[in-house]
Design goal:
By secondary structure, this protein is mainly α. 88% of the residues lie in helices and 0% in strands.
Length: 398
Amino acid sequence: MNRHKATLILILASSIYVISYPFHKTFVGGLIYSGSCASMIGGFADWWGINKLLKKTIPKNKQKIFDGLSNMVSEELLSKETLKELINKYDTSKLVIELVKNNDEIENIKTTLRLMIEDNINMVNNNEVEEIISALVINNLKKLDLHKLIVDLIEISLKTEFEDKLYNFILDELILISQTNDFKNRLIKFIEGIRSSYECDNIRKKIIDGFKGSNKSLAIDIQKKIEKFLYGMKKNDNESRLMLKQWVYNNLEKFKTKNEVKLKVEKWKFELLKNIKVQKYINMVFETTSVKILKSENVYNKVFLTITDWINDLYQNFDTQKKVDVFVKGIINKLIDDEHKNIEKIVKENLSKYTDNMLVELIESNVGNDLQLIRINGSLVGGIVGIIIFIIKYSIGV
């Protein structure tokens, strides 16, 4: 708007100057001529100065302007002290309450947490982690005194209420094994082997032949008897169970002290480590665990149940609000100290996107009217000064 006014005044002053020139010898004509001449000169001078400023000076000094602006923003407008003073004016616990009291916000946070967990799990290089864990497990197992661990476990089991539970656990496992088809097939092969080995000896052949029935039926019968025997051993007063306990007690001391036993256990351990596929099992655990975490709502619900309890306490407890305020301000102040240097960098990066024309347009759009006002004032003041100079000159007869 002011640009059009300034241009109109300049054109008007120039027109009056041309029209009044023939009458410049008269008092009125000279007064108008002198005023319009000075107004025209002042208007043209300010137009040239502003135009040079926008088209030449500003683009030429663009980097200095950017440096000055970024420094002003970081050191004056958004200095560390200014930001900290601004933060200290607010009770940040109220902002936290406003954030968490909205159920939609809680759900958004929950969704964000889920996405963060999923992203982090998906970003993990499973093979690399599995290799590291596998190497760690194997190295620790190599250092482990397995013989001592077994002895300690046996002694603990025998000296506590876990003794009978341990025996029952072993018996249950043996019962399950005795009920399998694989065990039955092994019995059949065993019976076949015995019968064939005694065919050449008439006396022993008669004894073996005394067991009537096919190999399969004999195996099934033996399988049932073994199962029945094992079930019987689950009773605490079973004679075979008591004999087993006594045998364990009698041989425990030998197991503890014999060097050859220790060597056998160590040898077995290293053989096991050679054959066991630790990484494969870790991979199974890893995949199963990650799937459970990602799919289980309980994982997220438990976290948010704790958060909900904390939120309820935050609503009602002034001391909790004060602690939250101190905690949040501490985090923000540390963030300001650590990241404040980036403000100047961010301002420079954003300013660097401006070309010369974009910068000129930006300045004109924000301060263009004020600059054009200089042109208007230059023309008006020039005209007044021209009139005053003419009057003085006329008065002294120059």
